[in-house]
């Protein structure tokens, strides 16, 4: 099982991730895609990355805005897995000009 990170470690990791915030034991970020279909492409690529990592985000789609929410349910908090997937989400979003 992945180790739950402490508050100091979480705060430090968040400084490395633009646009991500911590709320209620999760980190989350919303991105706005240039079009609805581009937003869906981002979601599809994130889904593939999540499946490969065996770590799945909660995803909310509202027209061109996609919100990703991460926590490690099995560990009961935030772990390194969440931050690794957040970095992947950021790369995927940037490739599609979703900001």
TrEMBL record:
The protein, known as: Putative pterin-4-alpha-carbinolamine dehydratase
Keyword entries, A-Z: Lyase
Top EC class, one word: lyase
One MF annotation (Gene Ontology) recorded for this entry: 4-alpha-hydroxytetrahydrobiopterin dehydratase activity
Membership in a protein family: Belongs to the pterin-4-alpha-carbinolamine dehydratase family.
Catalysed transformations (reactions): (4aS,6R)-4a-hydroxy-L-erythro-5,6,7,8-tetrahydrobiopterin = (6R)-L-erythro-6,7-dihydrobiopterin + H2O
UniProt-listed Gene3D superfamilies: Transcriptional coactivator/pterin dehydratase
Keyword Lyase: yes
Enzyme Commission number, as recorded: 4.2.1.96
GO biological process, one term: tetrahydrobiopterin biosynthetic process
InterPro entries hit by this protein: PCD_sf, Pterin_deHydtase
């Amino acid at each position: 099982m992945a180790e739950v990170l402490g508050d100091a470690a979480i705060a430090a990791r968040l400084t490395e991730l633009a646009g991500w915030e911590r709320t209620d034991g999760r980190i989350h970020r919303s991105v706005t895609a240039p079009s609805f279909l581009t937003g869906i492409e981002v979601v599809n690529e994130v889904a593939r990355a999540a499946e490969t990592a065996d770590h799945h985000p909660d995803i909310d789609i509202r027209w061109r805005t996609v919100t990703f929410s991460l926590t490690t349910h099995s560990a009961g908090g935030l772990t390194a897995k969440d931050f690794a997937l957040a970095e992947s989400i950021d790369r995927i979003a940037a490739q599609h000009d979703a900001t």
